[in-house]
Please model this.
Amino acid sequence: EAQVTQNPRYLITVTGKKLTVTCSQNMNHEYMSWYRQDPGLGLRQIYYSMNVEVTDKGDVPEGYKVSRKEKRNFPLILESPSPNQTSLYFCASSLLAGGISRSPLHFGNGTRLTVT
Amino acid sequence: TQLLEQSPQFLSIQEGENLTVYCNSSSVFSSLQWYRQEPGEGPVLLVTVVTGGEVKKLKRLTFQFGDARKDSSLHITAAQPGDTGLYLCAGNTGNQFYFGTGTSLTVIP
Model:
């Protein structure tokens, strides 16, 4: 089944303890991206990647890191999490066929992160 | 930041009623996508519109892209309980996607 898989689904951690949220897609998509979803603010893009070893900042990259060493994986790293990073996080991928403007984003089911 | 404002933020209607959701921006987008999100899941694409003035129909859902490619609307005819969910618009510029704040729709049987 074609899908984007995020792990874990739920994560509770403490301020300053490094964590990684994994994202993997099995559709051979070039484009991958991370978003955070907060009430009243919608989805905001954190980082995106056009292909292996190519990553760029989105709207809210502060406090996050990403890497794209393989086409299928795009982990989100929080080196020193803070309470304002408590949020619902989504990973998405896209094939880019026909151009990015015409390509749908395929989302994972989300990771709910709580930082205390 | 390219702001996409959606209205209304919340909408509760009776089954069978019609409704329209708006997505507005001061920025021009290459395309506008509409997604629907259900609790505990990621957003799922409903439609992509790329041409100014374009109208697309998906069963009881009608999507329109503004002539200037800055705004879009989603019209649902004869809403059903299965239409309940969070509706999100997303504009594409360059390699980035900008999402609206969302419209939470509840259709009461």
About this structure: Residues 31 and 50 of chain A are 5 Å apart (CA to CA). Chain A touches chain B through 27 residues (CB under 8 Å). Chain A has no helices and eleven strands.
